TrEMBL record:
The keyword Membrane applies. It comes from the Bacteria. This is DMT family transporter. Keywords: Membrane, Transmembrane, Transmembrane helix. It holds the Pfam family EamA.
Length: 301
């Protein structure tokens, strides 16, 4: 693939994932986060299997031999991460959620250093500190004393929980040999299977308004399917380290989409988001020393 097309594919993937935040917030006003998570993977599972076959031509037997890891991945990333995020969106909003989630590449880099013994260089450590300072600014609204008295907002804590879930997903993913789209397809099937007993008892609903139906369709088609295909095509052409830089577009696109839908952006969120982006850039910056880049893991968004 030509480099220009690869960059376009990576940018579009992040644009599609950004829409997940805005449309996720919209759809969760009509149906529960459990319903949205369940229907997302029900409708995306078979198309993902087709995409995996068309793009990666996988060895399905080899993929199924890794079923314990896929089951863990499904619980962490496709069910856990998604439930936390969709539960948070109705409480904190798409903009705040995107700004806090932007720290994910930095938390993955930190977890890789702790659990996988990947070395962090001086500039990367500075980047981690800056990124966490930015998230702290957003979480506290710039008033640490008030937070100590009143506590954190539950929506923000749920976003933090989604970040932790995705960080764990990304670390476990290092042990998988299954290609990424194939892995996601297998995990989507497992997510549906493992959620079935719960939704049978609790029940699920589908959106009834045109906006809700369109939002669910967007989430199934763009973040769940096309985002994966475009990311893998672009990453395969330019390499995972260079592709990881494009993850910084995710909160930017989310803010732009949210503003287009009439949402407001608080100055404190802008300042915190700028710090997070700077910190993540420093953390993922490719130095002279060779290292395994933390952004090689495909973000389920």
């Amino acid at each position: 693939m030509h480099r220009g097309r690869a960059y376009l594919a990576l940018a579009l993937a992040n644009l599609f994932w950004a829409g997940n935040y805005v449309f996720g917030e919209m759809v969760t006003t009509e149906i529960t986060p459990i319903s949205l998570t369940f229907w997302r993977w029900v409708f995306a599972a078979i198309p993902l299997l087709v995409l995996a076959w068309a793009i990666e031509r996988p060895d399905w037997r080899a993929a199924t031999r890794e079923w314990p890891l896929h089951l863990l991945q499904s619980a962490l990333g496709l069910t856990g991460y998604t439930l936390f995020l969709y539960s948070a969106l109705g409480l904190t909003g798409a903009v705040n959620a995107a700004v806090i989630s932007a720290i994910n590449p930095a938390t993955i880099a930190l977890a890789a250093a702790i659990f996988l013994h990947q070395r962090l260089h001086g500039l990367q450590i500075v980047g981690l500190v800056v990124a966490f300072a930015g998230v702290t600014l957003v979480l506290t609204g710039g008033d640490v004393l008030a937070v100590l008295e009143q506590g954190f907002r539950i929506g923000d804590l749920l976003v933090v929980a989604s970040v932790i879930a995705w960080t764990a997903y990304s670390i476990v993913a290092r042990r998988l040999r299954t290609p990424p789209i194939t892995a996601t397809a297998v995990q989507a099937v497992l997510a549906v299977a493992t959620m079935l007993p719960f939704v049978t008892v609790i029940g699920v609903t589908l959106p009834t308004t045109a906006g809700g139906i369109a939002g669910l369709a967007y989430i199934v088609i763009f973040p769940s399917m096309l985002g994966y295909a475009l990311w893998n095509l672009g990453s395969g052409a330019v390499g995972p380290a260079r592709a990881g830089i494009f993850l910084n577009l995710l909160p930017v696109f989310t803010v732009l989409i949210a503003l287009a839908f009439g949402q407001s952006l608080e100055p404190i969120a802008m300042a915190g988001g700028a710090l997070v982006l700077l910190g993540v850039y420093l953390t993922l910056r490719i130095g002279r020393a060779k290292r395994a880049d933390a952004s090689t893991d495909l973000p389920v968004r």
